[in-house]
């Protein structure tokens, strides 16, 4: 189908978003984010030095092949990133996987995807805030961790409420600081290796100690993929991404898609480099580390201390403390967009669908997300086992949503889209100002093509999402029993809410009839 007048999905997105301005009356977000802004949000949420906390556990589990673990994990998560890149062009709307599941699978599946993603977007920032509070407490022991945690929530919430560009600029400064610290570690490690050589073989971070074990590497990969949770948050800003060099104009969906894929590649490179150098400099073997589980959490810091000096250990610790708070800032912003999108579709209280006329952000949705995160983070900070408990339950929600994302690609390109269905149904948008599907041209699909023409690409529209789904299932199976239990309870509660909403709408429809 040829498309004129700016491309199907993109014209539709502009119509659905109501153009560039935002107001509380229309619920429209402002298209002001550049490619750099989107990349900053994704890298902030992931954190450039995310492997630091789990480096020791992965080194022990993989029998020393920690760098290979991250290379494999990057490839595994690439399937999910590619599915996001495909669906953001079909439905460039706030809400991310919630919107994509609505498009590809239907209203019910969309609600379940949003409900499960909500668990992730609300609790991952809580973990990050708590980590920041604990790290700052270690630097200033006279102040309790919960105070630092609450302060971090307050500061980042104010930044998010001030506007998406303001928060992005602050995030860019923090991200630059984290990358500088990582560069200092890399240079210091290289200098140490040149001066004194490596305590172990140069290939061991890729092949393992004492021989390669595929089972050990795959077991570690199931944990390492969790380091990448957060790159998907970029898709939540689809209605705020412009296409021109200044962040305006056509092409916003393409910009979001490129940012998602670029974020994953950049993170994968950073993770591989830092784990390779740290593994070479490890003062103990992977077997010794496996025998001392209590030392695994601080293994990266211990390596920096023994190989370079205490100053580098402290520098990395400070960077992680500040970086964690701003990772939570990006997560909170994504959570606000998810709540906003679900409220706009009357799946959550409508008050959260309002956009502040001054700042152009969904203020009430952001405050709702901040309140839940504050309660979870401060409550955990007041418990001795709070970090362990909170960390054990944050993953299943995101992974379930990823699974529905992959199913959405297949559902849209092979079933619903080929029937000529609009990307979103009544009240869901993606309808241009003229009321025609796809915006000015009246066509349904733009550059993503294929619908209404030849069959979809088997590789991109079937093989890739199926492989991504297999990765997600494998990771969920490997998740802790606590995470599976909490995820199951949250899923059941969501299904109950969905059933109640469906019953209420059915009764309302019957009354009107």
Automatic annotation (TrEMBL):
Lineage of origin: Bacteria, Bacillati, Actinomycetota, Actinomycetes, Kitasatosporales
Keyword Zinc annotated: no
Transmembrane segments: 38-58, 64-85, 146-164, 171-195, 215-238, 259-282, 321-340, 361-381, 393-415, 458-477, 483-500
Coiled-coil positions: none
GO terms for cellular component: plasma membrane
Gene3D superfamilies listed in its UniProt record: Amino acid/polyamine transporter I
Identification of the protein by name: APC family permease
Classification via InterPro entries: AA/rel_permease1, APC_superfamily
Positions of the UniProt region annotated as Disordered: 1-20
Compartment list: Cell membrane
Keywords: Cell membrane, Membrane, Transmembrane, Transmembrane helix
Gene Ontology MF: a single term: transmembrane transporter activity
Membrane topology: Multi-pass membrane protein
Main location, first listed in the record: membrane
